[in-house]
Amino acid sequence: MLDFPRWKITSILVLLAALMALAIPSFFSEDQTKAWGWIPHPRINLGLDLAGGSYLLLEADTADLINQRVEQKRDEVAAAMKRANPKIDIGDISTRDGKVTFMLRDVTQVDAAREQLQALTTGAGLTGQRDWNIEVVDGTRFVMTPTQAGIDQQINQAMGDATEVVRKRIDELGTKEPTIVRQGNSRIVVQVPGLQDPQALKQLLGKTAKLEFKLVDETATDPAQLAQGIAPVGSQVLPYPSSPSRFIAVKRAVMITGDQLINAQQSNNPQTNQAEVVITFDSQGGKKFARVTQANVNHPFAIILDGQVLSAPNINEPILGGTASISGSFTVASANELAIALRSGKLPVALKVIEERTVGPDLGADSIHAGIKASIIAVILVIAFMLVTYGRFGIYANFAVVINVVVIMGVLAVLNGTLTLPGIAGFVLTIGTAVDANVLINERIREEQRRGRSVIQSIELGYKEASRTIFEANATHAISGIIMLLLGSGPVKGFAVVLLIGIATSVFTAVTFTRMLVVLWVRRTRPSHLNI
Question: Is pTM beyond 0.85 here?
Answer without folding.
Answer: no
